[in-house]
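In practice, a research group might receive sequence data for several interacting partners and want a quick structural hypothesis before committing to experiments. The following worked case mirrors that situation: the sequences arrive first, and a predicted assembly follows.
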Amino acid sequence: MKLNSKIPEGKLEEKWRNYQANSHLINPTNKKKLNVIVVGSGLAGAGAAATLAELGYDVQCFCYQDSARRAHSVAAQGGINAAKNYQHDGDSVWRMFYDTLKGGDFRSREANTYRLAELSAPLIDHFVQQGVPFAREYGGVLVNRSFGGVQVQRTFYARGQTGQQLLMAAYSQLYKMIRAKKVDMLPRHEMLDLVVINGKAKGIIVRDLTDGTIKRYAADAVVLATGGYSRVFRLSTLAIGCNGSAIWKAHKRGAYFAAPSFTQIHPTALPQSSDAQSKLTLMSESLRNDGRIWVPTKKDDARKANEIPEDERDYYLERRYPAFGNLAPRDIASRAAKERIDAGHGVGPLKNGVYLDFKNAIDRLGLDTIEDRYGNLFKMYRKITGINAYEKPMLISPAAHFSMGGLWVDYELMTTIPGLYAIGECNYSDHGANRLGANSLLQASIDGYFILPNTINNYLQTELAEERPNVDHPEFERVEDDVKEHIAKMMAINGSRTVDDFHRALGKVMWQECAMSRNRAGLEKAIIQIKNIKKEFWSEVKVTGSEAELNPELEKALRLADFIELAILMCVDALQREESAGAHFREEYQTKDGEALRNDADFMYVSAWEYNTGNFKLHKEELKFEYVEPTVRSYK
Amino acid sequence: MKVTCKIWRQESADSKGNFKSYETDGLTEDMSFLEALDHLNEILVLKNERVVAFEYDCREGICGQCGVFINGRAHGPHDHVTTCQLHMRSFKDGDTIVIEPWRANAFPILKDLMVDRSAFDRIIEQGGFITAKTGTAPEANAILISKEVSDKSMDAAACIGCGACVATCKNASAALFTSAKINHLNSLPQGRPEAHKRVLEMTQQMQLEGFGSCTYTGACEVECPAEISISNIAEMNARYLKAKLLS
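A structural hypothesis for the assembly, expressed as tokens:
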């Protein structure tokens, strides 16, 4: 299949307007006849479900959590970018577009990225109207702060809980439409497969997590808003339930998977302390605004941080990247930390961290200002570690975070299966090979509130003439049988190892070979190892209880089975891309001072993988840069 | 580290539950409390037993999904901490830890330590929002809100919806939860047009769900991980009175 990105005609700044002017509309009476399934209730999912319902569609929204309000958008701390230029510091849509494109190391589409920047300003208006208590000046106007990879102040925030506040707004709008009886909300329901009829997405199979019942839902279109898949590394900044199952099942049913190996490793998480650890807590990147990152110049320095004199501290980000300093983009900051830790300068009990120090900032700005800006983060740090970071520097370390990769989508956010859309983190659209801080809340919201509700009608108007989707169709029965068989097979193994044990094994391989730094030999070895894990999983995993009840162990096992398969594709993708770009760093391709070496001549494309019964087949979407000249990304 | 976990086990909503004790060895002080339960569950699986069902998701204190009663306190021995942020260093080797689900009529038990908190969602459904469609917003800085008002609104908006306030209250009152949402929205200019309707409808739903009345014991604010102040309840009551008088 030839990939058609459906980029509209016209100049960059006119494309979205042209698209809207030319797309099909559906009259209100007809919208009522159409129903849409939305899987996931985070910023993208809840935003889409609420807005589609406002437009008149009938919506069913699903989430695996006990309430839509738990979706992992809730955990984003630092903020949301918008090109408002309130700070009068030279910001503009164009500059934001350029920063995002450059931050992504020129591996995303110009048209998509421009649209992201273009819609950012109205999104802030939208959230203010919904009652988000963004930070304000005494005079009542909105405040901004800086974020990594950028030299202007365009980040809006609500203390260190921006994600929570935006999600509460989306969740409240969702409940507004539930009250209006336009959305049917189904929490504790997990999508286990996609139903495709005559080449079009027509419904899903879900498991009711409270009693294990398998149910069918039919619709005129299916929207996946299921978030990122970095739990493939097991230890990550994500919620424990975050998974890649919905997009993986969609991939196996025909949706292409784009750039699966593009994973962001966040530079400022809390270091791992033991094998039993289940997650790595993120400390917002906004801390890098005022905190300075350093390690001792001496290897294996056993002194306490406060005992190390100034001239024996290596502020390595300020040293290597004087223009951006501590605000270098995430991929660069993470790699620089890894480099120092690997060279023996790591600090903390396991020597796996670096310091993030606020002493200078407190001296300069005063304790009150720092407390006002980051109070809840310092409090959180203390709860987890027992350490007061106003007195001692924080100990931080890189951790698996955001998935730039995801289902391939065109300009309309539709996957390669007609009628199947992917929005928010689960798609590959705007971020290229590396996402800038405070752009993820932005993308999720814009996809859900602004883009999808404007593009889905273009497809749905063709469906009006079709037969209404029906769960009695034989294809629903066939897919439901597949799901039941898959579960029965898993329950029957009754082996000798726990699900978590397999997840730890998978995580170790992935963190070792497919995280911050990759090479051919390592990736080839990883693929063999993961295939072995898969074989062993299907003969040795043990899940107790039954499938016909609330069974958390079975939920974990089903998600892990998909993660194992996805991990193989991630390694295949990382192996195939013989260049370094953004977060994808291949050791064979670097400059002599250790920076990423891109290869535009051979790899200026988005890798879109077809499942092809497990013999993944590569399709290339060439990236054309008409408005911007891809440069060597430098933050020096 | 070795502790005895005395855990409430209940197969389903309709079945009868009881406490069961599990000797749990191989723990470390750095483990979070939920990681200790993960560890126990792995042991149970290998012994061919059903795992203990408990709630969690983000494990960083913000999603609000986790929450159990630990030794008679919601979210365990500390003030203002979620269950996921509690660490084993808060316990001693050899301790017996009693673990129960939230107990409230409006939060029926689903299984073991898991309860159904959808009553909270239904309270939000009755006006915990601003009626404004996507696409209708005016320019953000056209609405000026002083820092004091914005900060106060944010203090209330910080609620994570975990239900500890209800669980710890002797009356199982949801007044802290409901007042936090009402004050978040009603103190902002955007929330004002629906202010009276909101307070009347949300408080009515709170009663319909079977939550008890508030008698100002202050127990809720001690446990609240988001440190929502009990003064929110007084403010809600004042708003309620005003709404009753004016509508």
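Before designing any experiment, note the following. DSSP finds 18 helices and 20 strands in chain A. Chain A has a mean pLDDT of 96.
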